Automatic annotation (TrEMBL):
<feature type="region of interest" description="Disordered">
    <location>
        <begin position="450"/>
        <end position="471"/>
    </location>
</feature>
<keyword id="KW-0862">Zinc</keyword>
<dbReference type="InterPro" id="IPR007527">
    <property type="entry name" value="Znf_SWIM"/>
</dbReference>
<feature type="domain" description="SWIM-type">
    <location>
        <begin position="373"/>
        <end position="407"/>
    </location>
</feature>
<dbReference type="InterPro" id="IPR018289">
    <property type="entry name" value="MULE_transposase_dom"/>
</dbReference>
<dbReference type="Pfam" id="PF04434">
    <property type="entry name" value="SWIM"/>
</dbReference>
<dbReference type="InterPro" id="IPR006564">
    <property type="entry name" value="Znf_PMZ"/>
</dbReference>
<protein>
    <submittedName>
        <fullName>Transposase, MuDR, MULE transposase domain protein</fullName>
    </submittedName>
</protein>
<keyword id="KW-0863">Zinc-finger</keyword>
<keyword id="KW-0479">Metal-binding</keyword>
<dbReference type="Pfam" id="PF10551">
    <property type="entry name" value="MULE"/>
</dbReference>
Length: 471
Protein backbone atom coordinates (compact mmCIF):
# COMPACT_ATOMS: atom_id res chain seq x y z
CA UNK A 1 0.00 0.00 0.00
CA UNK A 2 1.29 3.45 -0.69
CA UNK A 3 1.65 5.53 2.42
CA UNK A 4 -0.19 8.52 0.99
CA UNK A 5 -3.39 6.59 1.44
CA UNK A 6 -3.15 6.79 5.18
CA UNK A 7 -4.57 10.28 5.39
CA UNK A 8 -6.43 12.08 2.71
CA UNK A 9 -9.24 14.49 2.23
CA UNK A 10 -11.79 14.50 -0.48
CA UNK A 11 -14.95 16.31 -1.30
CA UNK A 12 -18.27 14.67 -0.91
CA UNK A 13 -21.60 15.84 -2.13
CA UNK A 14 -25.23 15.13 -1.64
CA UNK A 15 -26.26 13.06 -4.56
CA UNK A 16 -29.94 13.24 -5.24
CA UNK A 17 -30.22 9.64 -6.30
CA UNK A 18 -28.54 8.48 -3.11
CA UNK A 19 -30.19 10.95 -0.82
CA UNK A 20 -31.05 9.56 2.56
CA UNK A 21 -29.71 9.40 6.02
CA UNK A 22 -26.37 7.85 6.67
CA UNK A 23 -28.24 5.73 9.13
CA UNK A 24 -30.74 4.57 6.58
CA UNK A 25 -30.41 1.81 4.11
CA UNK A 26 -29.43 4.29 1.41
CA UNK A 27 -25.88 4.50 2.63
CA UNK A 28 -24.43 1.51 4.34
CA UNK A 29 -20.97 0.82 5.61
CA UNK A 30 -20.42 -1.65 2.82
CA UNK A 31 -21.40 0.93 0.19
CA UNK A 32 -18.95 3.42 1.64
CA UNK A 33 -16.31 0.74 1.89
CA UNK A 34 -16.84 -0.21 -1.72
CA UNK A 35 -16.60 3.40 -2.88
CA UNK A 36 -13.24 3.74 -1.17
CA UNK A 37 -12.03 0.45 -2.62
CA UNK A 38 -12.98 1.58 -6.11
CA UNK A 39 -11.69 5.09 -5.76
CA UNK A 40 -8.22 3.98 -4.73
CA UNK A 41 -8.26 0.79 -6.76
CA UNK A 42 -7.58 -1.33 -3.73
CA UNK A 43 -7.56 -5.07 -3.97
CA UNK A 44 -10.58 -6.87 -2.65
CA UNK A 45 -8.67 -8.47 0.22
CA UNK A 46 -7.05 -5.23 1.42
CA UNK A 47 -7.73 -4.58 5.07
CA UNK A 48 -9.14 -1.12 5.61
CA UNK A 49 -10.12 0.55 8.79
CA UNK A 50 -12.33 3.30 7.64
CA UNK A 51 -13.36 6.13 9.86
CA UNK A 52 -14.79 9.40 8.88
CA UNK A 53 -16.31 12.50 10.30
CA UNK A 54 -19.13 14.54 8.88
CA UNK A 55 -20.61 17.75 10.10
CA UNK A 56 -24.06 16.56 9.14
CA UNK A 57 -25.52 13.12 8.63
CA UNK A 58 -28.70 14.24 7.04
CA UNK A 59 -27.74 13.23 3.55
CA UNK A 60 -26.13 10.36 1.78
CA UNK A 61 -22.58 10.93 0.62
CA UNK A 62 -21.08 10.05 -2.69
CA UNK A 63 -17.32 10.12 -2.89
CA UNK A 64 -17.04 8.54 -6.29
CA UNK A 65 -16.77 11.64 -8.41
CA UNK A 66 -15.00 14.71 -7.08
CA UNK A 67 -15.06 16.47 -10.44
CA UNK A 68 -18.79 16.61 -10.47
CA UNK A 69 -18.81 18.20 -7.04
CA UNK A 70 -16.28 20.82 -8.05
CA UNK A 71 -18.33 21.66 -11.15
CA UNK A 72 -21.45 22.06 -9.15
CA UNK A 73 -19.80 24.25 -6.59
CA UNK A 74 -18.24 26.40 -9.30
CA UNK A 75 -21.41 26.90 -11.26
CA UNK A 76 -23.51 27.17 -8.10
CA UNK A 77 -26.42 26.06 -10.20
CA UNK A 78 -27.35 22.97 -8.31
CA UNK A 79 -26.45 24.12 -4.87
CA UNK A 80 -29.92 23.57 -3.59
CA UNK A 81 -29.63 19.90 -4.35
CA UNK A 82 -25.91 19.39 -4.27
CA UNK A 83 -24.01 20.78 -1.32
CA UNK A 84 -20.39 19.99 -0.77
CA UNK A 85 -18.65 19.14 2.45
CA UNK A 86 -15.13 18.15 3.29
CA UNK A 87 -14.77 14.63 4.41
CA UNK A 88 -11.69 13.56 6.30
CA UNK A 89 -10.94 9.93 5.89
CA UNK A 90 -8.33 8.19 7.94
CA UNK A 91 -7.26 4.87 6.65
CA UNK A 92 -5.21 2.65 8.78
CA UNK A 93 -3.89 -0.10 6.61
CA UNK A 94 -2.03 -2.00 9.26
CA UNK A 95 -3.30 -5.47 9.98
CA UNK A 96 -6.17 -5.39 12.36
CA UNK A 97 -7.18 -8.39 14.36
CA UNK A 98 -9.87 -8.73 16.94
CA UNK A 99 -8.19 -10.04 20.06
CA UNK A 100 -10.17 -12.23 22.42
CA UNK A 101 -8.73 -10.76 25.57
CA UNK A 102 -10.06 -7.82 27.48
CA UNK A 103 -6.98 -5.63 27.28
CA UNK A 104 -5.12 -5.70 24.06
CA UNK A 105 -1.96 -4.28 22.57
CA UNK A 106 -1.47 -3.75 18.91
CA UNK A 107 1.81 -3.99 16.99
CA UNK A 108 5.13 -5.18 18.35
CA UNK A 109 5.50 -2.09 20.46
CA UNK A 110 3.06 -3.44 23.03
CA UNK A 111 1.31 -0.12 23.08
CA UNK A 112 -1.95 -0.03 24.95
CA UNK A 113 -4.63 0.48 22.38
CA UNK A 114 -8.14 -0.32 23.53
CA UNK A 115 -9.94 -1.79 26.47
CA UNK A 116 -13.23 -3.62 26.77
CA UNK A 117 -14.73 -4.56 30.12
CA UNK A 118 -17.95 -6.42 30.70
CA UNK A 119 -18.77 -7.94 34.05
CA UNK A 120 -20.14 -11.45 33.64
CA UNK A 121 -23.03 -10.82 36.04
CA UNK A 122 -24.15 -7.77 34.01
CA UNK A 123 -24.04 -9.73 30.78
CA UNK A 124 -26.12 -12.55 32.28
CA UNK A 125 -28.50 -9.98 33.73
CA UNK A 126 -28.94 -8.40 30.33
CA UNK A 127 -29.47 -11.66 28.49
CA UNK A 128 -31.90 -13.15 31.01
CA UNK A 129 -33.83 -10.39 32.73
CA UNK A 130 -33.66 -7.11 30.82
CA UNK A 131 -35.45 -5.77 27.78
CA UNK A 132 -33.24 -6.13 24.69
CA UNK A 133 -32.51 -2.42 24.41
CA UNK A 134 -28.94 -1.12 24.67
CA UNK A 135 -27.94 2.53 24.73
CA UNK A 136 -24.41 3.30 23.69
CA UNK A 137 -22.36 6.47 23.91
CA UNK A 138 -18.85 7.88 24.22
CA UNK A 139 -17.28 10.58 26.39
CA UNK A 140 -13.90 12.22 26.13
CA UNK A 141 -11.28 11.43 28.76
CA UNK A 142 -9.34 14.25 30.34
CA UNK A 143 -6.27 12.44 31.65
CA UNK A 144 -2.71 12.44 30.38
CA UNK A 145 -3.47 10.34 27.32
CA UNK A 146 -6.90 11.77 26.52
CA UNK A 147 -8.80 9.11 24.65
CA UNK A 148 -12.44 8.16 24.77
CA UNK A 149 -14.63 6.22 27.15
CA UNK A 150 -17.27 3.93 25.59
CA UNK A 151 -20.28 2.72 27.54
CA UNK A 152 -23.30 0.50 26.90
CA UNK A 153 -26.21 0.45 29.31
CA UNK A 154 -29.59 -1.26 29.53
CA UNK A 155 -32.59 -0.44 31.74
CA UNK A 156 -34.14 -2.60 34.45
CA UNK A 157 -37.87 -3.03 35.15
CA UNK A 158 -37.73 -0.13 37.60
CA UNK A 159 -36.37 2.18 34.88
CA UNK A 160 -32.91 2.22 36.46
CA UNK A 161 -29.70 2.10 34.49
CA UNK A 162 -27.76 -1.18 34.37
CA UNK A 163 -24.21 -0.75 32.99
CA UNK A 164 -23.48 -3.60 30.58
CA UNK A 165 -20.09 -2.83 29.05
CA UNK A 166 -17.37 -0.25 29.36
CA UNK A 167 -14.34 0.62 27.31
CA UNK A 168 -11.48 2.95 26.62
CA UNK A 169 -10.08 3.67 23.19
CA UNK A 170 -8.07 6.34 21.50
CA UNK A 171 -10.95 8.12 19.84
CA UNK A 172 -14.47 7.75 18.59
CA UNK A 173 -13.40 6.27 15.28
CA UNK A 174 -14.83 3.52 13.14
CA UNK A 175 -12.12 0.96 14.04
CA UNK A 176 -12.43 1.69 17.76
CA UNK A 177 -16.22 1.38 17.85
CA UNK A 178 -16.09 -1.67 15.57
CA UNK A 179 -13.56 -3.50 17.73
CA UNK A 180 -15.44 -2.64 20.90
CA UNK A 181 -18.77 -3.72 19.43
CA UNK A 182 -17.22 -6.92 18.11
CA UNK A 183 -16.18 -7.89 21.65
CA UNK A 184 -19.60 -6.89 22.93
CA UNK A 185 -21.08 -9.23 20.34
CA UNK A 186 -18.98 -12.06 21.72
CA UNK A 187 -20.69 -11.43 25.04
CA UNK A 188 -24.32 -10.91 24.06
CA UNK A 189 -24.59 -12.23 20.49
CA UNK A 190 -26.51 -10.65 17.66
CA UNK A 191 -30.24 -11.14 17.36
CA UNK A 192 -33.16 -9.61 15.49
CA UNK A 193 -34.88 -8.43 18.68
CA UNK A 194 -31.93 -6.35 19.81
CA UNK A 195 -32.31 -2.58 19.64
CA UNK A 196 -29.46 -0.08 19.93
CA UNK A 197 -30.07 3.58 20.69
CA UNK A 198 -27.32 6.14 20.22
CA UNK A 199 -26.60 9.55 18.80
CA UNK A 200 -26.01 9.75 15.09
CA UNK A 201 -22.23 9.52 15.15
CA UNK A 202 -21.28 7.83 11.92
CA UNK A 203 -18.73 5.51 13.57
CA UNK A 204 -21.44 4.05 15.82
CA UNK A 205 -23.79 3.52 12.90
CA UNK A 206 -21.10 1.71 10.95
CA UNK A 207 -20.04 -0.42 13.91
CA UNK A 208 -23.60 -1.51 14.69
CA UNK A 209 -24.25 -2.35 11.09
CA UNK A 210 -21.02 -4.28 10.75
CA UNK A 211 -21.02 -6.17 14.04
CA UNK A 212 -24.75 -6.52 14.71
CA UNK A 213 -26.31 -6.92 11.26
CA UNK A 214 -29.43 -8.56 12.72
CA UNK A 215 -30.07 -5.87 15.33
CA UNK A 216 -31.83 -2.56 14.72
CA UNK A 217 -30.15 0.78 15.27
CA UNK A 218 -32.47 3.55 16.45
CA UNK A 219 -31.32 7.11 16.99
CA UNK A 220 -31.58 9.36 20.01
CA UNK A 221 -34.42 11.81 19.39
CA UNK A 222 -32.78 14.53 21.47
CA UNK A 223 -29.70 14.51 19.27
CA UNK A 224 -31.89 14.40 16.20
CA UNK A 225 -33.86 17.40 17.42
CA UNK A 226 -30.66 19.42 17.83
CA UNK A 227 -30.10 19.19 14.07
CA UNK A 228 -33.58 20.28 13.09
CA UNK A 229 -33.33 23.98 13.89
CA UNK A 230 -36.77 24.00 15.50
CA UNK A 231 -37.67 27.61 16.07
CA UNK A 232 -39.51 27.60 19.38
CA UNK A 233 -40.76 25.55 22.31
CA UNK A 234 -44.08 24.83 20.66
CA UNK A 235 -42.37 23.21 17.68
CA UNK A 236 -40.10 21.23 19.96
CA UNK A 237 -43.23 20.03 21.73
CA UNK A 238 -44.67 19.05 18.37
CA UNK A 239 -41.46 17.16 17.55
CA UNK A 240 -41.75 15.12 20.76
CA UNK A 241 -45.39 14.39 20.00
CA UNK A 242 -44.34 13.01 16.62
CA UNK A 243 -41.48 10.88 18.04
CA UNK A 244 -43.54 9.50 20.87
CA UNK A 245 -46.77 8.85 18.96
CA UNK A 246 -47.85 5.23 19.40
CA UNK A 247 -50.10 5.05 16.37
CA UNK A 248 -49.20 5.89 12.82
CA UNK A 249 -52.34 8.05 12.60
CA UNK A 250 -51.14 10.31 15.43
CA UNK A 251 -47.71 10.35 13.87
CA UNK A 252 -49.11 11.39 10.47
CA UNK A 253 -51.39 14.08 11.91
CA UNK A 254 -48.53 15.76 13.78
CA UNK A 255 -46.08 15.33 10.89
CA UNK A 256 -48.57 17.13 8.64
CA UNK A 257 -48.69 20.01 11.12
CA UNK A 258 -44.87 20.18 11.16
CA UNK A 259 -44.78 20.19 7.37
CA UNK A 260 -46.96 23.29 7.41
CA UNK A 261 -45.16 25.18 10.18
CA UNK A 262 -41.55 24.21 9.39
CA UNK A 263 -41.14 22.31 6.12
CA UNK A 264 -37.32 22.09 6.31
CA UNK A 265 -37.50 20.20 9.62
CA UNK A 266 -40.17 17.93 8.19
CA UNK A 267 -37.94 17.13 5.22
CA UNK A 268 -34.94 16.39 7.43
CA UNK A 269 -37.03 14.02 9.54
CA UNK A 270 -38.31 12.19 6.48
CA UNK A 271 -34.76 11.80 5.21
CA UNK A 272 -33.53 10.50 8.56
CA UNK A 273 -35.93 7.56 8.17
CA UNK A 274 -38.95 7.50 10.52
CA UNK A 275 -38.20 3.93 11.60
CA UNK A 276 -34.99 5.22 13.25
CA UNK A 277 -36.64 7.78 15.47
CA UNK A 278 -40.41 7.34 15.56
CA UNK A 279 -41.89 4.98 18.12
CA UNK A 280 -44.85 4.26 15.82
CA UNK A 281 -42.57 3.26 12.94
CA UNK A 282 -39.80 1.46 14.84
CA UNK A 283 -39.73 -2.19 13.75
CA UNK A 284 -38.89 -3.23 17.34
CA UNK A 285 -40.31 -2.14 20.68
CA UNK A 286 -38.60 1.00 22.01
CA UNK A 287 -40.60 1.03 25.26
CA UNK A 288 -40.29 4.54 26.67
CA UNK A 289 -36.72 5.02 25.48
CA UNK A 290 -36.66 7.73 22.85
CA UNK A 291 -33.24 9.14 23.78
CA UNK A 292 -29.82 7.96 24.89
CA UNK A 293 -30.00 10.19 28.00
CA UNK A 294 -29.49 7.21 30.31
CA UNK A 295 -26.10 6.26 28.97
CA UNK A 296 -25.04 9.89 29.03
CA UNK A 297 -25.95 10.08 32.67
CA UNK A 298 -23.56 7.17 33.37
CA UNK A 299 -20.89 9.16 31.62
CA UNK A 300 -21.86 12.14 33.74
CA UNK A 301 -21.36 9.99 36.87
CA UNK A 302 -17.79 9.29 35.84
CA UNK A 303 -16.96 12.88 34.95
CA UNK A 304 -14.79 13.44 38.02
CA UNK A 305 -12.87 10.25 37.32
CA UNK A 306 -12.11 10.96 33.71
CA UNK A 307 -8.73 12.44 34.57
CA UNK A 308 -7.70 9.19 36.22
CA UNK A 309 -5.40 6.58 34.69
CA UNK A 310 -6.98 3.72 32.78
CA UNK A 311 -6.83 1.13 35.57
CA UNK A 312 -8.31 3.51 38.11
CA UNK A 313 -11.10 4.38 35.72
CA UNK A 314 -11.82 0.71 35.08
CA UNK A 315 -11.92 0.02 38.83
CA UNK A 316 -14.24 2.98 39.35
CA UNK A 317 -16.62 1.47 36.83
CA UNK A 318 -16.52 -1.95 38.52
CA UNK A 319 -17.02 -0.44 41.97
CA UNK A 320 -19.99 1.58 40.71
CA UNK A 321 -21.67 -1.54 39.32
CA UNK A 322 -20.97 -3.40 42.58
CA UNK A 323 -22.62 -0.63 44.61
CA UNK A 324 -25.63 -0.33 42.32
CA UNK A 325 -26.21 -4.10 42.40
CA UNK A 326 -25.99 -4.14 46.18
CA UNK A 327 -28.42 -1.24 46.71
CA UNK A 328 -30.94 -2.52 44.22
CA UNK A 329 -30.82 -6.05 45.58
CA UNK A 330 -31.93 -4.54 48.90
CA UNK A 331 -34.62 -2.53 47.13
CA UNK A 332 -35.84 -5.62 45.28
CA UNK A 333 -36.03 -7.62 48.51
CA UNK A 334 -38.34 -4.99 50.03
CA UNK A 335 -40.67 -4.43 47.10
CA UNK A 336 -44.12 -3.18 48.11
CA UNK A 337 -46.05 -4.22 45.03
CA UNK A 338 -45.97 -7.13 42.63
CA UNK A 339 -44.59 -4.75 40.03
CA UNK A 340 -41.76 -2.23 40.36
CA UNK A 341 -42.45 1.22 41.82
CA UNK A 342 -41.76 2.88 38.51
CA UNK A 343 -44.21 0.62 36.66
CA UNK A 344 -46.81 1.07 39.43
CA UNK A 345 -46.55 4.85 39.09
CA UNK A 346 -47.00 4.63 35.35
CA UNK A 347 -50.08 2.44 35.73
CA UNK A 348 -51.62 4.74 38.37
CA UNK A 349 -51.30 7.69 35.98
CA UNK A 350 -53.42 5.82 33.47
CA UNK A 351 -56.23 5.14 35.92
CA UNK A 352 -58.22 8.11 34.75
CA UNK A 353 -60.47 5.92 32.67
CA UNK A 354 -63.38 5.65 35.13
CA UNK A 355 -65.82 7.23 32.68
CA UNK A 356 -64.72 5.22 29.68
CA UNK A 357 -67.40 2.92 28.28
CA UNK A 358 -66.57 -0.76 27.88
CA UNK A 359 -68.56 -3.18 25.74
CA UNK A 360 -67.75 -6.86 25.63
CA UNK A 361 -67.33 -8.73 22.35
CA UNK A 362 -66.33 -12.13 23.74
CA UNK A 363 -64.30 -13.49 26.64
CA UNK A 364 -61.12 -11.84 25.35
CA UNK A 365 -62.20 -9.02 23.08
CA UNK A 366 -63.63 -5.72 24.23
CA UNK A 367 -64.44 -2.36 22.80
CA UNK A 368 -63.56 0.71 24.85
CA UNK A 369 -64.79 4.20 24.09
CA UNK A 370 -62.47 6.79 25.64
CA UNK A 371 -64.42 9.87 24.59
CA UNK A 372 -62.21 10.43 21.56
CA UNK A 373 -61.64 7.02 19.99
CA UNK A 374 -63.20 3.61 20.16
CA UNK A 375 -60.38 1.12 20.73
CA UNK A 376 -60.53 -2.62 20.30
CA UNK A 377 -58.65 -4.62 22.91
CA UNK A 378 -57.73 -8.30 22.82
CA UNK A 379 -56.69 -9.52 26.25
CA UNK A 380 -55.44 -12.82 24.85
CA UNK A 381 -53.04 -11.39 22.28
CA UNK A 382 -52.12 -8.36 24.41
CA UNK A 383 -53.09 -5.85 21.75
CA UNK A 384 -54.95 -2.56 22.08
CA UNK A 385 -55.81 -0.30 19.16
CA UNK A 386 -54.01 2.59 20.85
CA UNK A 387 -50.78 0.49 20.76
CA UNK A 388 -49.57 1.73 24.15
CA UNK A 389 -49.99 -1.66 25.77
CA UNK A 390 -47.93 -3.59 23.24
CA UNK A 391 -45.29 -0.84 22.78
CA UNK A 392 -44.71 -0.15 26.48
CA UNK A 393 -45.45 -3.45 28.21
CA UNK A 394 -47.75 -1.61 30.62
CA UNK A 395 -51.56 -1.66 30.41
CA UNK A 396 -53.09 1.41 28.77
CA UNK A 397 -56.22 3.19 29.99
CA UNK A 398 -58.36 0.92 27.82
CA UNK A 399 -57.05 -2.25 29.46
CA UNK A 400 -57.45 -0.68 32.90
CA UNK A 401 -61.06 0.23 32.03
CA UNK A 402 -61.68 -3.42 31.11
CA UNK A 403 -60.22 -4.72 34.38
CA UNK A 404 -62.59 -2.36 36.19
CA UNK A 405 -65.48 -3.54 33.97
CA UNK A 406 -64.61 -7.14 34.85
CA UNK A 407 -64.47 -6.35 38.56
CA UNK A 408 -60.79 -7.29 38.88
CA UNK A 409 -58.93 -5.81 41.84
CA UNK A 410 -55.79 -4.94 39.92
CA UNK A 411 -54.25 -5.15 36.48
CA UNK A 412 -50.89 -6.73 37.39
CA UNK A 413 -51.75 -9.69 35.20
CA UNK A 414 -51.60 -7.36 32.18
CA UNK A 415 -48.18 -5.92 33.01
CA UNK A 416 -45.25 -7.41 31.04
CA UNK A 417 -42.93 -9.69 33.02
CA UNK A 418 -40.05 -7.18 32.71
CA UNK A 419 -41.72 -5.05 35.36
CA UNK A 420 -42.72 -7.81 37.80
CA UNK A 421 -41.12 -8.71 41.08
CA UNK A 422 -39.50 -12.03 40.03
CA UNK A 423 -37.66 -10.45 37.08
CA UNK A 424 -36.60 -7.42 39.07
CA UNK A 425 -35.29 -9.53 41.93
CA UNK A 426 -33.48 -11.86 39.54
CA UNK A 427 -31.87 -8.85 37.81
CA UNK A 428 -29.68 -8.21 40.85
CA UNK A 429 -29.41 -11.73 42.19
CA UNK A 430 -25.72 -12.08 41.34
CA UNK A 431 -23.06 -10.29 43.33
CA UNK A 432 -20.29 -8.16 41.86
CA UNK A 433 -17.13 -8.91 43.78
CA UNK A 434 -14.31 -6.64 44.83
CA UNK A 435 -10.86 -7.02 43.29
CA UNK A 436 -9.10 -6.51 46.60
CA UNK A 437 -5.73 -4.80 46.95
CA UNK A 438 -3.52 -4.83 43.92
CA UNK A 439 -0.54 -5.61 46.17
CA UNK A 440 -2.13 -8.97 46.92
CA UNK A 441 -2.86 -9.92 43.33
CA UNK A 442 -1.04 -12.87 41.87
CA UNK A 443 0.39 -12.03 38.50
CA UNK A 444 1.22 -14.82 36.04
CA UNK A 445 4.86 -14.82 34.95
CA UNK A 446 4.11 -14.46 31.26
CA UNK A 447 1.78 -11.51 31.70
CA UNK A 448 1.82 -9.12 28.76
CA UNK A 449 2.91 -5.62 29.68
CA UNK A 450 1.54 -2.63 27.85
CA UNK A 451 3.33 0.64 27.38
CA UNK A 452 1.38 3.91 27.47
CA UNK A 453 -0.93 4.62 24.60
CA UNK A 454 -0.92 7.12 21.82
CA UNK A 455 -4.31 8.67 22.19
CA UNK A 456 -6.02 11.02 19.76
CA UNK A 457 -7.08 14.47 20.82
CA UNK A 458 -10.78 14.78 21.50
CA UNK A 459 -12.81 15.23 18.37
CA UNK A 460 -14.64 18.49 17.97
CA UNK A 461 -18.29 18.61 17.22
CA UNK A 462 -19.75 16.53 20.00
CA UNK A 463 -22.29 18.23 22.20
CA UNK A 464 -20.48 19.10 25.39
CA UNK A 465 -22.89 17.98 27.98
CA UNK A 466 -25.81 17.42 28.71
CA UNK A 467 -28.80 19.20 29.78
CA UNK A 468 -31.03 16.20 29.72
CA UNK A 469 -34.32 16.87 28.10
CA UNK A 470 -37.09 14.74 29.45
CA UNK A 471 -38.09 12.06 27.09
ZN1 LIG B 1 -55.25 1.21 24.73
Amino acid sequence: MSSNLKNFKCLIHFNETQRGSILSEYLTYSMLHEMVMQKFKLEANAVINLSFKLSSFDFAVDITDDAEVTDCVQTKKKLKLVISLKLSLKMDLSDYEVPRVLVTCRNDNEVFEMLFIAIGASIRTFLNYLRPVLMIDAAHLKGLYKGTNLVAVAMDGNNQIVPIAFGICKGETGPCWSWWMSVLKECIGDNPNLLFISDRHAAIALAVEKEFPLAFHAVCCRHLMMNLGLKNKKRKGLFWKICKAYTREDYATNMNTLQIVQPDAHEKLCRAGPQRWSRAHCPLVRYNYMTSNSVESVNACSVIYRKEPVLKLAETYRAMVQEWYYKRRQLAANMTYEITDWAANKVVKKMKSATWVVKGVNAYQYEVSDGQYIREVNLQTGICGCRKWQLSGLPCGHVIAITRFLGLTDCVHYVADWFKKPKYQATYSESIHSLGNMQQWEFPENIQKAIPPRMDNPQPGRPKNTKCIQS
